[in-house]
Amino acid sequence: MTALVSMEGVTKSFGGAPALRGVDFDLRTGEVHALMGENGAGKSTLMKVLAGVHSPDAGTIRIDGKPVTISSPIEATALGIAIIHQELNTVPDMTVAENLALGAEPRTRWGALDRRRVLRDAEEKLARVRADIDPRLPMRRLSVGRQQMVEIARALAEDARVLVLDEPTAALSDREARRLFALIDEMRAAGMGLVYISHRMEEVWELADRVTVFRDGRSVGTSEKAEITPERVVTQMIGRNVEDLYVHDDRTPGEVVLRVRGLTDGAGIGPVDLDLRAGEVVGMVGLIGAGRTEIARMIYGADRARGGTVELEGRVLGERSPDTSIRDGIGLLPESRKEQALFLQMSIRDNLVTSALGRLSRLGVLRRGAIGDAARRQMDALGIRTPPTREAGHLSGGNQQKVVLGRWLTVGPRVLILDEPTRGVDIGAKHEIYRIINEQVSRGVAVLVVSSDLPEALGISDRVLVVRGGRIVAELDRSEATEEAVMLHATGVATAAEKNGGTTA
Amino acid sequence: SEGDPVTAERGGPGAKVETIGLMVQDLSNPFFQSMANGVQAAAEKIGATVNVQDGRQDLGAQNEQIDAFIQQQIDVLLINAVDSDGIGPAVDRAKEAGIRVVAVDVAARGAEAQVTLDNTAAGNLACTYLADQIGGAGDILLINGTPISSVQDRVTGCKQALQNYPQISIVAEQNGDNGRAEALTIATDMLTAHPDVKGIFGINDPTALGATLAAQQAGIGGLVIVGVDASPEAVAELQKPDSMFEATAAQDPNTQGAIALEMAQKLFAGEQLEEQSVLVPTEMITRENLAQYKGWQ
Amino acid sequence: MTRTAPAGTPATEPAERTRPSFGQVWDRYGILVVLLAMVALMAVIAPNFLSLSNGFNVARAVSINAVLAAGMTLVILTGGIDLSVGSVIGVSGVSSVLLWNAGAPAVVAVLGGIAVGAAAGLLNGFLVAYLALPAFIVTLGALTYLRGTAYALTDGQPLIAEGDLGFRLLGNGNIAAIPSPVVVMVITYVAVWFILERTTFGRHIYAVGGNVEAARLAGIKVRRVLLQVYLLAGLTAGLAGVMFAARVESGQPRAGEGYELDAIAAVVLGGTSLFGGRGRIHGTFVGALIIGVLSNGLVLMNVPFFTQLIIKGAVIIVAVGLDSLKNWRS
Amino acid sequence: MTRTAPAGTPATEPAERTRPSFGQVWDRYGILVVLLAMVALMAVIAPNFLSLSNGFNVARAVSINAVLAAGMTLVILTGGIDLSVGSVIGVSGVSSVLLWNAGAPAVVAVLGGIAVGAAAGLLNGFLVAYLALPAFIVTLGALTYLRGTAYALTDGQPLIAEGDLGFRLLGNGNIAAIPSPVVVMVITYVAVWFILERTTFGRHIYAVGGNVEAARLAGIKVRRVLLQVYLLAGLTAGLAGVMFAARVESGQPRAGEGYELDAIAAVVLGGTSLFGGRGRIHGTFVGALIIGVLSNGLVLMNVPFFTQLIIKGAVIIVAVGLDSLKNWRS
Ligand SMILES: Nc1ncnc2c1ncn2[C@@H]1O[C@H](COP(=O)(O)OP(=O)(O)OP(=O)(O)O)[C@@H](O)[C@H]1O
Ligand SMILES: Nc1ncnc2c1ncn2[C@@H]1O[C@H](COP(=O)(O)OP(=O)(O)OP(=O)(O)O)[C@@H](O)[C@H]1O
Ligand SMILES: [Mg+2]
Ligand SMILES: [Mg+2]
Fold first, then answer.
1. Structure confidence by residue, pLDDT tens digits, A223-258
2. What are the protein's UniProt keywords (chain A) (predicted)?
3. Ligand 1 within 6 A of D14 CB?
4. Nearest CA to ligand 2 atom 22
5. Strand arrangement, sheet containing A272-277
6. Of the candidates B253, B212, B268, the residue with the CA atom closest to the CA atom of residue B27
7. Is C216 touching A (CB cutoff 8 A)?
8. Subunits with at least 3 CB pairs below 8 A relative to chain C?
9. Cα–Cα distance measured from residue C240 to residue C233, given in angstroms and rounded to the nearest whole number
10. For A266-310, what is each residue's pLDDT tens digit?
11. Residues A342, D6: C-beta atoms closer than 8 Å
């Protein structure tokens, strides 16, 4: 049988920098073909070529064996190719319905915009992915996760034969992910060809019929379902195997460093109580929209709390804001690095020292020597091997995330709050980030990790807090924290059960 | 005293002017265009070249232009300053560079000679005429302009004249930006506030003509509207028998320019001037004497 | 040891309430309230302000800036800006009178003037959309060379219309007892409203302004949208220019100097974000009225012109200040 | 078929080549090339263009706009804009002469004038930083009310300096054979360069302009940075105003009309992005020179004024066009 899609010798470079160096790739009908590889390996670029976003420098693309040239997103759609891009591509100021209709707005007989149909179509599309979202809402009002669901709805709507999902679960948590996997199975059964890009091994094992591994702009091998083993894939990806991905030394936490009591924003989040001990990692898990990010931001002072107290080493902190928190020794690694953390057009060095300039200057004048040293030291510690003067925007996702983390290591806080620290980061980088976290903890830093990647959260945490409806509904020890246990609490089943049946000992 | 001034001493007995710099406030006003024409014509007669620069009503620009002229080592500079005093330092620089400077239309501090229109007299004449036409009593509107020397003098002159007419009062005074459009807009509003005025004085013809339009459009009749300049536009309007625009104080920028060049030539040749300061008389142009008025060239 | 809390209320989506809050109402009508307050004030302190005829004066005086602002709104919604519209008024006005004096029929003169504006806009659009030059600089350049062109066309002289100008009705006189420029203004706003609210092109304008990358990936021809938007801005400016010429019954090369800032002020007062993607055309209309009412009232009160400047500046700031109270909820 | 590499090699970043490409060189020096080309051209066609004294003329003529543009660069780097600087020139110049005429010593008069500018900037900054009003509108309002204030201070009349103005040196005369305004300009640029390249404040300016949310979360006091930036823009404009007054030895209420656009043009020509976060102060200097060389050369060539406008407009566009060739690599 001829492949649904086959790409041969595709090359693409950006301003002289090769991103694809002659890639062969093929997709069959009725299969899920997983693409894996380090950040910057070229996965998204290849798919953007297929989706008509980038035109290749060389190479041929065949659909059903017939050579085609795809020079615009519209042409791709016409050929039945749909894609969910890695980055959110929504228009925040337009409604969900308008976003769903974007680029293909229905017209009335007289060529005017058919607003009734825009709404009707939107409701259908959302129904298909079983997302209960009001299509009249402005997109900006939705959380990252829900915006992602809208994107999925949009892609599925164009009844395509080929669907590319580029890290669709990065912003989703387990429940939404499950829902998506069910849809994927349906589509596979319906004979569609799906390309699935992810850095989450577990998902790949579960979904993929074949796995192609990318490295350095080349395909370094495709394995059939039968022959897929984690070791093999990881080795292909980063040239070595990662024995145990989740680094976690045995340790005994020290004194309580951070004590939060009754923290609330007066609108759906909180009241929240939690303690952080020196030298421990506490995971915060929950469904999308559970409010984990809000809790984290309130502790740090990024958002104003309407009630409750935050104590640091016994001292009650007053009105908190990022700058006071930093002075007090609390740090936050925000949820989305591009929007909230990184200065894309600044050098790696400047990004690393942004929050420590007070220490690295005298009377407001930069101590450039000291800055250079500090930056170089961090880059070595983080394993970022590229000139410090390089613009952060040019780095791959993994290295960007390391830079943001490095900014906090330069400051050296007592309490470090990490919101989705490995979102969209490749396994090699993930491993290094876990290593860094572990190292900080061993120095007595208290770490709070918000993660939608459940295995990760369980793998690196000493304790796990389950968040639902803006509250902490359960606290589980490392020993008792299993995915099942967490999901029970996260979805509310557990508490429901307890009502008619005593409490767990 | 700046840079290394180009103090090549030029001119002297019998010397002929070869390069002329002419600077005017605002070439987009026909008045100054006519002045430029006057200088151009006179220059051709003596076979000299003219570099005309537009001040765009910006003193800063005029400063730069003078420096450029110094650079070009022109022989004489005819200057129509945006501001009489503000131009002073620049004039001094020009003289240090050996350029003979004559002020045109508006006085310029430090100029060696000047041909000026008596703007005060012009304003005075215009408003006297207006006052008489409305029978020495009633309310009138005054449409002022951007505060530059010539405009201010006209307003001063007008108010002087009105002191002889105690029953006349200026009920509103607004800035028409020296132009027809803005004058039209604000005159419309002024007439709304004061529908029963008897006359309007505009500081120049474009302004007065804008006011005339405003009155027509507002359906107000029987006004006496006067301006200053006697520009072609104004002449055309005066020729309409039914227009409320009745008179304008004639200024002759064309001749002014010519006279200025004449004086500059004399200075350049080291001759004595009979008088350092020539004051060009102005006369009221009305429908009656319109025939005799030769207008601008 | 497992601490468990009572079943938590499901994740509340803070802003999912669809019932309009006070804030949302203010978002919508805040600037309108400002306008009404101003009218009320003027009615009390400015002589003859509150009369039908003066209402028409204001409307007539506003019409040109309002038409400019309508086109400007489209550009700003895409996140761009057009500083050249003031100079377009000069060029197109002069052109239309030139055509008239050359013996062209009124209609041709009018369309000619508008076409000149459209052409200028087309060039801006090409440079911004296809050469990706910054709109601010492109249109700043255009502001300069178009003004020069206006002067060049008339040798710096105002151009007296021969006979009485065939299309003077566009600037003066009435249509069904309503000042004709006001009629033109209203038609323009209805047209722009329809484009923005009822056509796919309108949606695309918001999309490009809201998130250009998303728009491109959704298959929207971003460049064409930008080109068309600047074209329309030039076209409306051309129309404004012809209206101006008709109003002063002559071709004034200086016409429209500085009008671009008033137009932009109207747009922003109307609540349109200079970053694009957000705004409504009726807001612009209200913004233009605020500026017009203010100028008119101050003249009626015979406030000295420099005091007028001080008040105008202050009011502009206060108006956006009040309007932006909405941001204070977040 | 599994290639294995030595442990821990990072994902190779294609663009990691450190040897500067042609493109990068052009990024850096593109606009400089444009300037040199222009100077070369002028040297050939404009009489007496290439001479030390004319060099000083250009520098002197440029100095005021250059000083304005220096402060403007700081504002634009934060993603803001300041349209009020032209009017600040009027107010501060008038104020300094008022002080002088009131018998204040020259130093006091100068500092007073500068202080007035700084105060105006402080108000802009407060409204933008703490009330979160759009900079464009706030400074547009300031442009208007400050001009009014300048007129009000002098009753609309230009203000003649009594005796000879104690600080005329700031506008005329030389310091060590170099025109004094040029010296002032150079000092200003060195100061701004130091702020941007050598101080934490400078880093913070780039950070706020680059990503305001990230800056806030990184502990930068965003509002204070904004406040200070507008303050500095007002301060440099105040300085420019005093220089203007010194140059014309009088207080001109109309001084600086429209200068804001020239200043912004200089900044953008210099390669600073109007979206903030990206740009260099020396670029602004080059940009100001381009504008200055052009004006000077056109006068020397005796080009009619409206042709000058056409050429200027075209050159501004062409200059950014050439400069933006860099974008074509991606
Ligand atoms: N638009 C662009 N301009 C310049 N370089 C780009 C562009 N898009 C991608 N690149 C570069 O091409 C290389 C491949 O990028 P790509 O996004 O395909 O990697 P990826 O495999 O998707 O990585 P990740 O897993 O982080 O998404 C990277 O080095 C990236 O920096
Ligand atoms: N930009 C936003 N505007 C309005 N509400 C938001 C926004 N982002 C999140 N929310 C709301 O805040 C709550 C928490 O959202 P969020 O998704 O950030 O929580 P979370 O637990 O951090 O989930 P995740 O971090 O996986 O996105 C949800 O009710 C969500 O709807
Ligand atoms: Mg990718
Ligand atoms: Mg979150």
1. 888 888 878 888 888 777 777 788 777 888 889 999
2. ATP-binding, Cell membrane, Membrane, Nucleotide-binding, Repeat, Sugar transport, Translocase, Transport
3. yes
4. A293
5. A272-277, A256-264, A307-312, A315-317
6. B253
7. yes
8. A, B, D
9. 10
10. 888 979 999 999 999 999 999 878 899 999 999 999 999 999 999
11. no
